[in-house]
Amino acid sequence: MKMRMKKIYAVLLSCFMLASCDKFDDDININPNQPSKATATQLIANSALSLSSLSASPAAQFHAQYLSETQYPGASLYPDGGTSFYWIYQGPLMNLETVLTTAKLSTTEGPISNQLAVAKILKAYYFWHVTDRWGDVPYSEALQGVENFTPKYDTQESIYTSLFALLEQANSEITAGNISNDIIYNGDINKWKRLGNTIRMLMALRLSEVDPAKGAAEFNKALEAGIMTSNADNLVFRHLADANNQNYWYGQVSNQNREWWALTETLVNKLKPVNDPRLQVYGTPARTTGEYRGLPFGTMQGLPNVTNYSLMGPAIWKQDAHIQLVTYAQALFAKAEAAKRGWIAGGDAEAQINYNKAIEQSLLQWTGSTAGASALLSQEGVAYDPANAIEQIATQRWVHLYMHGYEAWAEWRRTGYPANLVEPDGKAVPLRNSYPATEAFNNTANYNEAVQRQFGGQDNLYGRVWWDK
């Protein structure tokens, strides 16, 4: 499997961005040994290569307060200027749009309907990520290339409606038959189907505070269509043990010998008192004491001695470490919350079943075993309590989502849990990312309209996105 993955990655590196290059009619410009046009499944695979970038960065972990800076603590205190979303549009989304609109699809790479369905699932996932970080963003007029360099900003509410429809369409189009060049599920179309429905279910839960009736309806449609059934269904980006496709953190920690990131005090203090087995994977004991100790987030009072704190565990920064993006445990936490909210039947009994199973599956995902689950679930504060169920579910979801910072940050904004994220130097956790600074110049009218509509003209970190009520 690893050898096959390496071959696919090598092909992607050699041919992908060629799809956007100018065409030359003169044969002298044609290299017969290099592909001149990517196929549909190659474009899909190339878009999947960007999935790791949705999580693998210090900024993502700072937003969720998983990691503290040891070397440059000021760098963790959130970006005052704009944050670019251009790379997502210009890279993975443009590749997927090419598959959906102009690529010549071939049945030699699997059923065409399945190729289109997978492209729609990935398109929905990327746009979900974009709108949850920035709010209203270009959608209906985006990805048109030279036809439209200044697309309007669609409302987040309308984008959610469109993405629900896109995922429902993808589910209905999937038929028997796997696809080629699949670096995520090795062509297994049934796993793609379950992924699409799980994404839809998680999106539906985002509506819990702004439109619970619609959220419940979409949640149940996704559940009925069939969601993940085990960790084998997880959306996982698999890095490889080679320099071209390695884990971002390996390049930082191992290659650069940087001990710049410690686990936060907030995270360690959630795990250590209850003997959570995941702590041994998430980080290492402090070298001076042999005990787990977190560094307060955003500490600005001089540089800390890194030997006194727990740094990232080697399982997190090893060269071929996987990134877990959408997981079975997330789906179970979502079902637990839905039961507690009355979106699905069963009340507290059903909520507890799914909550307990979510923690078990999280341990299995992170440690390879459920051996410590019973002991953990008996701990005060972890054992299911109907009076505090929403807080418990949200907090344990946050623990589970370690190193998938942007998703954890979105769930924190929705639920408010964990309730003890800190405000170093009085700087509160952001409620969104600001738009790229160049949008004010390159897409002035649409940018100004979007900022005025949402935030009263202030494009900063503290305007609330549509579902954050």
Automatic annotation (TrEMBL):
It comes from the Bacteria. Keywords: Signal. InterPro entries: SusD-like_2, TPR-like_helical_dom_sf. The keyword Signal applies. It holds the Pfam family SusD-like_2. Residues 1-25 form the signal peptide. This is SusD/RagB family nutrient-binding outer membrane lipoprotein. The lineage of its organism: Bacteria, Pseudomonadati, Bacteroidota, Cytophagia, Cytophagales.
